[in-house]
Design goal:
The chain is mostly helical. The protein contains 7 helices and 2 strands; from the N terminus they run H-H-H-H-H-H-E-E-H.
Length: 207
């Protein structure tokens, strides 16, 4: 009898505190592992894409309006910082699990869209994705910054207890949660790795 009464008390406390019927925003071990793998793989790909390139090669442009390899790396490093600031700011806001109904993309779809160079998203939303500026004085400085921040971001996802799933934000991809925003940060680099490959494939690229 006492056990049954205790159960009713616990249920009552859950209802009073608003915890009944909600879904935890804590990410699983599998989600952590997946995110870490994506962060590590894209970091490796960035560093491989510029390995052993000469000054002439990293500064080469197919046209005056196109980015060089160096500018691609500057953008990757600066975007890492910019979007991380956005993630941190979003997590400081109150959780809004009611907005999860607005999410239309799976984690895999978010990653695929960010890696698709042809996809531009809705540019009238969330300028944090856009207009990234950088003030690096050299390629080496940008690489060092990227490596340091990426290491920090990998360590973060390994142990964070923040409610990533129940903080939902509007982006050019549509509504996504903060775990998916983390995946955006990780996969964004691949867009510009592809851009670097395109530069290298130009017939005028210095050998």
């Amino acid at each position: 009898m006492r056990r049954k009464k205790t159960g009713y008390i616990l249920l009552g406390l859950l209802v009073i505190t608003g915890l009944a019927g909600t879904t935890s925003g804590s990410i699983s071990g599998k989600e952590r592992k997946s995110a870490v793998g994506l962060m590590k793989n894209t970091r490796t790909d960035v560093l491989k894409s510029i390995k052993d390139l000469s000054a002439t090669q990293v500064n080469f442009k197919t046209t005056g309006e196109q980015w060089s390899v160096k500018e691609c790396v500057y953008h990757i490093a600066a975007s890492e910082n910019k979007m991380w600031q956005w993630l941190e700011a979003s997590l400081k806001q109150p959780a809004n699990p009611e907005k999860r109904a607005e999410i239309k993309l799976t984690d895999e779809e978010v990653i695929n869209l960010m890696q698709e160079r042809a996809y531009k998203g809705e540019t009238n939303e969330s300028p944090e994705f856009l207009h990234v500026t950088f003030n690096y004085k050299s390629l080496e400085e940008a690489i060092a910054d990227f490596k340091q921040k990426r290491a920090e971001h990998i360590e973060y996802i390994k142990s964070t207890t923040e409610d990533l799933r129940n903080h939902v934000v509007q982006t050019p991809l549509g509504w996504i949660d903060c775990y998916q925003l983390y995946l955006v940060i990780a996969s964004h680099a691949n867009r510009h790795i592809q851009q670097i490959r395109e530069i290298k494939q130009d017939f005028a690229y210095p050998k």
